[in-house]
């Protein structure tokens, strides 16, 4: 067996092993959640009414119930909804149809299985971008598994996990279609990225960025004279067009039902109802918030109210810039530093109140959780430092296009979450890219250090 085939076989074994190990661990963890009365009862309660461990869950469960009741009227796209795209409520509705009494358990196990795909997908992206060695991929896998980025979210009825996994599996398929010059990966690419765009409104502009990324990646392989350039062009354009068509569905529905050119109204809610209101409360101007609410309610239709909310929020931010900056930076810092394991402790009624204001007075303020969170905060500080170091190395090497693309993708996935904060789960879509770049930089640095040490010892 030649060296190329041997390396290819080793990579395939590594990716399969990553998936199987993750699948076993995820399934066991899901079983622990399902069979723990304390944990499962909290998750079950959060699906019925807003609960401190997951306030957003009913906003997905209620549309799912309506999805089933009004299916004959609304069809596969589901009922109109101002705040949630149809993807995740449709998934919940499917599990409800399969088993009305055990749908939460089915959903948890489904998420556990699907989440195991994230690790080989992220390894594939790292391999194609940096030609990462097998041991580097194993370090990346170990970090993602131990950090609980995907494992910790399997028990929650929220979009974050499925969205992030679908996105990374889709990107991995896209990279494989270009690197392998293969049509085989085009359909799964469209299915997974298109599916992610239906789960959360984040990706309604992403097809433009996806097209740029694929063009740059295709340019890397243009030196292959055996593959016609028209094939590369088609491999780039065809999936981008289909993804754009799927991603536009929530926006078309939003315009049809509410006259808004946006996939949902959650942006206005985050800007005005959450951050804007918090700023005014801290400034002692709740009367002003009530005035704004009356002004918004006086608008004649949904589209006008949506735009008015955004305008009012911007007025608040302009009027109180320091308080706005302090609010957003504080919630963002907590979001970036919080360990993914913190919500798991919430299931057993344990918390560190400084990081989770929702749990204040509702849970036990645990010293163990405090030091656990602080330990992982230091780990993430190292990862973010390595990521910044990686960007600096790109700048020094004058790889400006690659640098710009990395910053654009991470910013696109991360910056909107800074508006209202909401815990470590909101950074999950961007965390895979950050981890790939940071682990690559650290592994490269360690390799250089050890190679220099070996050279000194040999002389």
Tags for this model:
21 helices, two-stranded parallel sheet, single chain, 459 residues, mainly alpha, 1% strand, globular
Describe the structure.
The protein has 459 residues and is mainly alpha-helical. Among the domains are: 266-325, no CATH class; 338-459, no CATH class. The protein contains 21 helices and two strands. It has helices at residues 3-35, 37-46, 58-69, 71-74, 87-98, 103-115, 118-130, 134-147, 160-179, 186-199, 206-220, 229-247, 249-258, 266-282, 286-297, 302-319, 321-337, 342-347, 367-396, 400-414, 428-458; strands at residues 350-351, 364-365. The chain has a two-stranded parallel sheet with strand order 1-2. Helix 10 (186-199) packs parallel to helix 12 (229-247), helix 14 packs parallel to helix 16 (302-319) and helix 15 runs antiparallel to helix 16 (302-319). It is globular and about 70 Å long. The mean pLDDT is 90.
